[in-house]
Specification:
Blueprint lengths: L21 H13 L4 E4 L2 E5 L10 H7 L11 H15 L3 E6 L6 H15 L6 H21 E2 L7 E2 L2 E8 L5 E9 L17 H9 L2 H7 L12 H4 L7 H15 L3 H18 L3 E4 L2 E4 L3 H10 L3 H9 E6 L2 E6 L2 H31 L6 H4 L3 E7 L11 H32 L12 H8 L5 H10 L6 H11 L6 E3 L14 E6 L2 E6 L3 H6 L4 H8 L4 H6 L17 H17 L2 E8 L12 H10 L2 H10 L3 E4 H8 L15 H12 L5 E3 L3 E4 L2 H23 L4 H9 L2 H7 L2 H13 L21 H28 L1 H4 L2 H6 L40 E7 L11 E6 L2 E6 L6 E6 L3 E6 L6 E6 L5 E4 L11 H14 L5 E4 L3 E5 L2 E10 L6 E4 L3 E7 L2
Parallel strand pairs: 2-16, 3-12, 3-16, 24-27, 29-31
Antiparallel strand pairs: 1-2, 4-5, 6-7, 6-12, 8-9, 10-11, 13-14, 14-15, 17-19, 18-19, 20-21, 21-22, 22-23, 24-25, 25-26, 28-29, 30-31
Helix pairs in contact: 3-4, 4-5, 5-9, 5-13, 6-9, 10-11, 10-13, 11-12, 15-16, 15-22, 17-18, 25-26, 27-31, 28-31, 29-30, 30-31, 31-34
Length: about 1000
């Protein structure tokens, strides 16, 4: 299973436990948490424990460790599951999704952000501007949504108070081209009420504490959150949240995403209006209801861009249509306060939905035609609220816990139930494993006519005054015999329940007591039509868009709007259907304690979560089952080159017999089982061995194909003009070679993962040969470097530290043509004539060539190219083509000095004391090191001329610039985005990006 971890850290995969029992499971989970190993596998499920501290395991180096690796080749990590989902999407052209679940405070939101970060980092190798734009907006959208949808709760300082499902769309090359966000059930009641110790949404505090004084004055807002009762309690709390810094970050993110200045100002105006609503009070003068602080009406009129009399009228009166007549009914003070609070909640919800919609408008895939661009595939990431049990559980907690029931049922169906059913379907011996099936609870909530949602909707549609007690009576009548429902009327001796107020549900995660107070109002979600018309008639176009139904006249007949419960139920059913249509990957998050301590592991608390997440049952299924399964044709498609009986095609009676013969030949027959349509492999180790044998055979096949077109021909044609090469080569080989000349100088990624299919590659034959021709040429050049370095002794060139840094990556045995495809930058170099333009001369063969960004030369910022041939060391203009900026005869070069670090600093020493200093770091691709290749090329050439080249590995490096002795020092800097040279007293400083 998971490799590369010492036994002192426990089992990296729970499947490897000696016995599958709760004590052993908890002991392993606790040990790994205490040792700083917060991730553990259960097969292909990642169990994540919130560490409650920053951990240095998400940087670029870690990303590179997991990029392109199989799931079990590295220690457990979120990046592994993200890479597995990405590879499945790219290899099999299939939609995937990552479902992140767990209770509030378990780290779901952070997990989703790290997964997004990884997917963004591993895509787009060519740094195309459009793809970078999409990736940046997808990441920035998280910042904005957290500000308006997250809040500090007693369990979590950054708790998501809405559900979010994000689809990331990829083109046929695997680059992100857009996305779409769905939001579910924003907890809008938090706008006007928060439980003790909690805050309202972050956006309010960010505005008050982070906005400049000029903005606050224009909004008529005080820089004191305690002045506004909706957020007063949260404003008095001490918190580690930096609202001031977050305000600036959110404002910058909105600009990057594409919000206009007017749109951002409208967002601030709506937040300010909600804050002013809270301090709006009503009084009574006889039978007339009055607004006590009328100055606020003028302020709200300004913020809402409407008329003052319309604002006052909407707050104090309600327009009612009775047949053909329209009358205005004045509110009582209580009704006016209710309408004020309903308006505040509705405005915030509409604002949030508009922000999500605006982000979708910007990031959605545009002008994409599958017939032209290929199939559009998707990776979905679900970050949705966790199971909640509070002291007072209301309608919001009921919906949230129902959502978790649906997701748990999906997990049971896809991971446990389908696993067992597949073995039974395939005829594989299987011992049945019992598990808790919570479909009975899902039906209890959503079943037509009998479920809790149906009873709630029926109560809301009753004529006359409807109360929460009426709703509870309906539940008692229809669910009195249900094993998972009870109330005080049904259990008179249960004093933990209040008469006519509470009911208890037995969820998969435990028993929860709900108070029916507020269920009716929250479900009806009543907002007077007068407010909708008021905001629709605003002169602010953004605000007008948020309230489209305001255009309806009061006399227009409209359908009864769907209740909040029905809307949420429909969205959950749609979400689960969407997830079920994709290949799922799971992250199960666990909260180790309630005090947010990085050291405390509350075993009883964690055991409860392990039980309701079904993790132990998952381990039992994996232990009894197989790690990998695949249909026989697909298995042969990938591994048939391993066996002589199956390559290139077998003549056995069936694919099943061919797979059996292949595995017998490899000695793995004891670790597999043969189903009706699939082969099952028990341990991942067998799969790794198959992959290694396949990779070795693919390399041999590549070498065989390379012999079809000689290396000398490819190398000669690479140096010849295209027109001349076409005239000399004809026939099928000429057609291939001409195509190479047209395309060969473009960077072609030679990816071993693409080798699958009955015809060796699932692409046309010409697409096979072109990269192989280029690879053949590059390998011949690299082989020269390898022989040179070996001839003089690589240890003389590279010290122990250098080898550790990966300089020998270019001379690994058997790895020259597979992993290291060079992009030889000879574009723009003359094929006839020397550098001075003299006709008839021949340009010497290139030994080494490398494009350098403008920052690569001291005090001469310019896009350049460094080229080494058999006669000259050239510095060429990168913009004007072959125009030389500096030319030094190679006979003048006496030695070369290189830095031992990753910075790739190189100094060419010359006889005339005019040394050339360059930095190769940052070349395309950015992660490559060219030092070994450069030194090898120089050593080989000097040896052929029977000259001695002095090679030094030092830091700092001593050099001569125009005859003056100086020193070049390398300094890593955290805020440095790319290498850059600056002057110092003793010479120069090369500032490179730090860790």
């Amino acid at each position: 299973m998971a490799e590369h971890e010492s036994p002192e850290f426990g089992k990296a995969d729970f499947v490897l436990l000696d016995s599958v029992a709760m004590p052993e499971f908890m002991a392993n989970l606790k040990l790994r948490f205490e040792k700083g190993r917060i991730y553990t596998y259960i097969g292909e499920v990642v169990v994540s424990v919130n560490p409650y501290r920053a951990m240095n395991i998400y940087g670029r180096d870690t990303i590179e460790l997991y990029k392109g690796r199989e799931l079990y080749e590295r220690p457990p990590h979120l990046f592994a599951i993200a890479d597995a989902a990405y590879k499945a999407m790219k290899r099999r052209n299939k939609d995937t999704c990552i479902v992140i679940s767990g209770e509030s405070g378990a780290g779901k939101t952070e997990a989703s952000k790290y997964i997004m970060q990884y997917i963004a980092a591993i895509t787009n190798p060519n740094q195309r501007a459009e793809v970078e734009r999409v990736k940046n907006m997808l990441l920035k959208s998280n910042c904005v949504l957290e500000a308006f949808g997250n809040a500090k709760t007693n369990r979590n300082d950054n708790s998501s108070r809405f559900g979010k499902y994000m689809d990331i769309n990829f083109d046929f090359k695997g680059d992100p081209i857009g996305g779409h966000i769905n939001n579910y059930l924003l907890e809008k009641s938090r706008v006007i009420f928060q439980q003790n110790g909690e805050r309202s949404f972050h956006s309010f505090y960010q505005l008050i504490k982070g906005a400049p004084d000029s903005l606050l004055r224009s909004l008529h807002i005080q820089k004191d959150p305690t002045a506004y009762s909706y957020i007063r309690v949260g404003g008095q709390m001490k918190s580690s949240i930096n609202d001031g810094a977050d305000f600036k970050a959110v404002a910058d993110a909105m600009k990057v995403i594409g919000f206009t200045g007017d749109e951002i100002q409208t967002v601030y105006k709506i937040l300010a209006t909600i804050l002013h609503l809270v301090i709006l009070t009503f009084g009574v003068d006889g039978d007339v209801t009055l607004i006590e602080n009328k100055k606020l009406v003028s302020v709200m009129r300004e913020l809402l861009s409407t008329k003052e009399e319309n604002v006052e009228k909407a707050l104090l009166y309600r327009t009612v249509a009775t047949g053909r007549d329209v009358i205005e009914k004045q509110h009582t003070a209580q009704e006016a306060s209710y309408g004020r609070d309903a308006l505040a909640k509705a405005m915030y919800e509409r604002l949030f939905c508009w922000i999500v919609g605006r982000i979708n408008d910007i990031i959605e895939v545009k002008n994409y035609d599958a017939r032209v661009h290929g199939k559009n595939t998707v990776i979905g990431v679900l970050d949705i609220y966790g199971f909640e049990i509070f002291q007072n559980n209301s309608f919001e907690q009921f919906c949230i816990n129902y959502c978790n029931e649906k997701l748990q049922q999906l997990f049971i169906q896809l991971v446990l139930k389908q696993e067992q059913e597949e073995y039974q379907r395939e005829g594989i011996p299987w011992k049945h494993i019992d598990y808790f099936n919570n479909q009975i609870i899902v039906d209890l909530v959503e079943q037509q006519h009998k479920g809790i949602f149906s009873v709630l909707d029926e109560a809301c549609m009753n004529v006359g005054k409807v109360t929460d007690e009426v709703f509870l009576q309906g539940l008692n009548g229809k669910l009195s015999k249900h094993a998972h429902f009870t109330s005080r009327k049904l259990s008179p001796t249960d004093k933990s329940l209040e008469f006519d107020r509470d009911f208890r549900l037995r969820h998969y995660a435990g028993d929860v007591v709900y108070s029916v107070v507020g269920f009716i109002d929250k479900n009806k979600d009543t907002l007077f039509q007068d407010f909708k018309r008021l905001l629709y008639n605003s002169s602010n176009p953004v605000m007008k868009v948020m309230w489209p139904e305001g255009k309806l006249s009061i006399t227009e007949v409209t359908k009864r709007p769907l209740t909040a419960a029905t809307l949420f139920k429909n969205s959950m059913i749609s979400l689960v259907e969407n997830l079920a249509s994709k290949e799922p990957y799971y992250v199960r998050c666990i909260k180790p304690n309630d005090v947010k301590s990085p050291l405390l592991f509350e075993e009883e608390r964690c055991r409860h979560q392990v039980e309701y997440l079904g993790l132990l049952e998952n381990v039992r299924v994996r232990r009894a089952g197989f790690a990998y399964r695949q249909t026989y044709p697909r298995f042969l498609q990938r591994y048939k080159m391993i066996s002589e009986f199956t390559w290139p095609n077998h003549d056995l009676p069936s694919d099943k017999d061919a797979v059996s013969r292949l595995l017998q030949g490899c000695g793995f027959d004891h670790d597999v089982a043969y189903g009706k349509t699939k082969v099952f492999i028990r341990t991942p180790r067998t799969l790794f061995s198959l992959e290694e044998q396949r990779a070795e055979m693919v390399q041999r096949i590549v070498l065989f194909l390379q012999k079809e077109i000689p290396v000398s021909t490819a190398a000669r044609l690479q140096r010849q003009p295209a027109s001349e090469a076409r005239s000399r080569v004809s026939g099928p080989r000429g057609f291939i070679t001409n195509l190479m000349i047209q395309q060969g100088r473009k960077q072609i990624n030679f990816n071993m993962q693409h080798y699958s299919g009955r015809t060796f590659l699932p692409i046309t034959p010409i697409q096979i040969v072109v990269p192989l021709i280029l690879t053949s040429f590059l390998r011949s050049r690299l082989a020269t470097t390898i022989r040179a370095v070996k001839a003089v002794g690589s240890d003389k060139v590279m010290g122990r530290k250098c080898r550790a840094e990966g300089w020998r990556g270019c001379i690994r045995k058997g790895n020259e043509g597979k992993d290291r495809v060079r992009k030889w930058n000879t574009r723009g170099l003359p094929h006839r004539g020397n550098l001075r333009g003299q006709a008839g001369a021949f340009f010497p063969p290139v030994l080494f060539s490398c494009s350098l960004s403008r920052w690569s030369f001291i005090c001469r910022p310019h896009s350049c190219n460094v080229t080494l041939n058999k006669q000259f060391l050239l510095k060429l203009d990168g913009i004007k083509g072959c125009v030389e900026l500096k030319i030094s005869p190679l006979s003048q070069v006496t030695g070369v000095s290189v830095s031992p670090g990753k910075d790739q600093l190189v100094v060419f020493h010359t006889k005339d004391s005019r040394d050339l200093v360059v930095c190769l770091q940052g070349m395309v691709p950015a992660s490559e090191s060219r030092i070994g290749e450069l030194v090898g090329a120089l050593l080989s050439h000097f040896k052929s001329e029977k000259r001695r080249l002095q090679v030094n590995v030092a830091s700092p490096i001593q050099c001569s610039m125009n005859g003056r002795k100086c020193t070049v020092v390398v300094e890593p800097r955290i805020n440095q985005s790319r290498p850059d040279f600056t002057k110092s007293r003793s010479g120069y400083i090369l500032a490179v990006p730090g860790n």
